[in-house]
User: Which sequence fits this backbone?
């Protein structure tokens, strides 16, 4: 079965692995992505929220999900609206904050805030970001974590 031609009815009859496979296709029909966003399985919801073809409402719902993996996928989505990325930069989960600074559309303020994050993994993501600013680079050059300084 070609993933991009899967119907909602076919999708709902699949097991978790099948649903994840279908949702990994960027050409997945919107109705199927929406069905994935309502699924009870975390990995299915994460793949729906992270699909670049997901409607904004699915990405926004994913960014508010109770599970950090789903929020991370939504914030990491290259189609995520700026507001979702900004909210992700303030998330309690360092994985979500890392996704925010790593999103190619992250605003400068998100990247600079990431350079001051309390988690070294988030700061390391800023250090490797093509969107790093001079101010963020300067901040990180004096970081307490040697791996961040070396990056």
Assistant:
């Amino acid at each position: 079965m070609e993933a991009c031609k899967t119907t909602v009815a076919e999708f709902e009859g699949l097991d978790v692995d099948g649903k994840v496979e279908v949702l990994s296709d960027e050409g997945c029909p919107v109705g199927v992505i929406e069905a994935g966003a309502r699924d009870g399985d975390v990995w299915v919801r994460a793949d729906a929220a992270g699909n670049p073809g997901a409607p904004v409402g699915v990405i926004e719902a994913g960014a508010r999900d109770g599970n950090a993996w789903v929020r991370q996928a939504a914030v990491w989505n290259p189609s995520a609206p700026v507001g979702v990325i900004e909210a992700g930069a303030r998330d309690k989960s360092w994985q979500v904050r890392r996704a925010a600074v790593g999103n190619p559309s992250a605003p400068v303020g998100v990247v600079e805030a990431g350079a001051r994050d309390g988690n070294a993994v988030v700061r390391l993501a800023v250090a490797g970001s093509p969107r790093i600013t001079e101010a963020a680079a300067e901040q990180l050059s004096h970081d307490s974590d040697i791996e961040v300084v070396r990056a």
User: Anything to note?
Assistant: The chain has twelve helices and no strands. The longest helix spans residues 42-50.
